[in-house]
Amino acid sequence: MQEIHHYIDGSEVKGTSGRFSDVYNPATGEVQAKVSLATKAELDAAVEKAAAAQVAWGATNPQRRARVMMKFAALINENMDKLAETLSREHGKTLPDARGDVQRGLEVVEVCIGAPAMLKGEYMNDGGPGIDLYSMRQALGVVAGITPFNFPAMIPLWKMAPALVCGNAMILKPSERCPTTSLMLAELLKEAGLPDGVLQVVNGDKEVVDAILDNDTIQAVGFVGSTPIAQYIYGRAATNGKRAQCFGGAKNHMIIMPDADMDKAADALVGAGFGAAGERCMAISVAVPVGDKTADALIERLVPRIEALKVGPYTAGDDVDFGPVITAQARDRINGLVNSGVDQGANLVVDGRDFNLQGYENGFFVGPSLFDNVTPDMDIYKEEIFGPVLSQVRAQSYDEALDLIMKNNYGNGTSIYTADGDTARDFAAKVNVGMVGINFPIPVPLSYFTFGGWKKSAFGDLNQYGPDAFRFYTKTKTVTARWFSGIKDGGEFAFKAMD
Ligand code: NAD
Fold first, then answer.
1. For position 308, what pLDDT does the model report?
2. Catalytically annotated residues
3. DSSP 331-372
4. Ligand 1, atom nearest to 249 Cα
5. Which stretch of DSSP H or E encloses residue 400?
6. CB of 150 closer than 6 A to ligand 1?
7. What confidence score (pLDDT) does residue 493 get?
8. Mean pLDDT across the chain
């Protein structure tokens, strides 16, 4: 059985805890490796070494740090297929989707090549008589990234690239379900010139996460995962005086107005609802057509499209639409929620339960399901299903559809399909959700904007990547400087305006 270790000081290091977690191939259901779960002592030792390595890295000029990112971007491109294959083997997503996972992470690395421009700080000469003010953006020291299973390349890259280019050292704790991609990325970073110890990949579960949160040297924690864990991490990190940005779960709605292009809306819903088996924080899981005529027209278009979806292992070729879900527990939970939808009175139009794939009977496959007449009191509406299940909630007006989204606990992404610019503008202005698509189903912003949800989808006040990342991973120091011309006037004791 293959063992997956930690990556400390530029090389693979065996864990000492004797505790492991199974890493599955979700397509076959087989355990393909065991990943070491670190102890608090292992984490503390990794942090100590990271802190030592950070001193020289933080003092390296930004242009040189940016060059490491430039080389890293080239190496990611060179290794794209290898990274995607590794990722698919542990996660189950199709190869084209896995390449997209790497690509959207790579784009953040590309923005980090321009880091020196983001790290310049501010300057004002003659803010008072003979007084100049300037602010510097300085690295925090050692920071941590804790990432989920569903984007094994993209989210670690969203964490590590900005943190490192700002001059920090990072402890990365990837998902124990898909750890290998992060280890590969760490090796590529070394090849790109990152000094040993500046990035430490420490594998583990709650034990190591708690050790991160309680470690006094770690200055900031960037987390992505489910809402209950995001809220927990935010609270404990803040109590311990750390900066924290914690991104959580989602329930993303798409409004379909009567004037929308229905075929385009149906295509978008199928891709955004079922791509990656619905295991995306930006998946559309709720369709909200306005008016029964729109709802009926949508169902008529969705059913054949959903029934034609090809579900299979990533090895079956590029025409597979989505793969298995991550674990047997995830599969059983999704099927349980579909059962609850039926019990609570929703209309199951396409039934993905009991999906069976010949030759892959032990894989964690779930077929696609479509519900109509879902209401907000049902568990399938309230829970983030994180599986290939699309729910249609019928609204009778635009205001009712908007109100539904406004009242939902989550606020990650949302979308509207309409031909009317006025409705689209009103929606974008009013909706209390962080990322909005207009005739666009998965509005993950490009890497020079920022990514973040509202409400229970994010805790903390800065978004991931883009300009916010440079603010999150640096602290500001502001200097007020005066140079006397050789004459000492004596001290000033009153706190006064600079006049
Ligand atoms: P998860 O919350 O189970 O795990 C995320 C990380 O937290 C992992 O590294 C895991 O080891 C750790 N963890 C798990 N339980 C913990 C505990 N009790 N104490 C401390 N640490 C713990 O999430 P997941 O299942 O890996 O990922 C799916 C979730 O992530 C979904 O809810 C999805 O919406 C969300 N997600 C959000 C975003 C976003 O940007 N908002 C992006 C991707 C995924």
1. 98
2. 281
3. HHHHHHHHHHHHHTT-EEEE--TT---TT-TTS-----EEEE
4. 34
5. helix 398-407
6. yes
7. 75
8. 97
Cβ neighbours for 239, distance < 8 A, ≥ 6 positions apart: none
Say yes or no: CB of residue 460 within 6 Å of ligand 1: no
Phi, psi (rounded to 5 degrees) for 25? -95, 105
Single-letter amino acid, residue 30: E
Which ranges of 279-327 does DSSP label H, i.e. alpha helix?
Answer: 292-307
Per-domain residue ranges for the chain? 2-248+457-479, 252-438
What are the angstrom distances between the C-alpha of 448 and each of 12, 109, 111, 265? 33, 11, 7, 27
Name, in order, each residue with C-beta under 8 angstroms of 176's C-beta and a sequence gap of 6 or more: 21, 23, 35, 37, 203, 204, 205
146: CA distance to ligand 1 center in Å? 8
Token duo for residue 102: 């790497």
d(CA 325, CA 383): 17
For ligand 1, whether the C-beta of 222 sits within 6 Å is no
CA dist 43 and 47 (Å) reads 6
Whole-number Å distance between alpha carbons of 341 and 489:
79
CA angle 493, 496, 499 (to 5 degrees): 120
- ipTM over 0.95? The verdict is yes
The residue nearest atom 18 of ligand 1, judged by CA position, is 206
For helices 40-59 and 206-214, angle between their N-to-C axes, nearest 10 degrees: 50
Residue type, 85: E
Homologous superfamily, domain 252-438: Aldehyde Dehydrogenase; Chain A, domain 2 (3.40.309.10)
Considering only the top CATH level, what class is 2-248+457-479?
Answer: alpha beta
State the Cα–Cα distance between residues 105 and 20, nearest whole angstrom: 28
pLDDT, tens digit, for every residue of 48-58? Answer: 999 999 999 99
Task: Please say whether the beta carbons of 35 and 7 come within 8 A.
Answer: no
Q: Which amino acid is at 2?
A: Q
Q: Among positive and negative, which fits the CA dihedral 371, 372, 378, 383?
A: positive
Q: Supply the DSSP symbol for 458.
A: E
- Regarding the beta carbon of 224 and ligand 1, being less than 6 Å apart is answered yes
Tokens at 83, concatenated:
């990274």
Q: Crossing angle, helix 62-78 and helix 154-165, to 10 degrees?
A: 160
pLDDT for 56-90, tens place per residue?
999 999 999 999 999 999 999 999 999 999 999 99
115 and 470 Cβ atoms separated by less than 8 Å: yes
Asked if pLDDT for residue 401 goes beyond 80, the answer is yes
Neighbours of 241 (CB within 10 A): 8
Q: How confident is the model at residue 485 (pLDDT cuts 50, 70, 90)?
A: low
Nearest CA to ligand 1 atom 42: 281
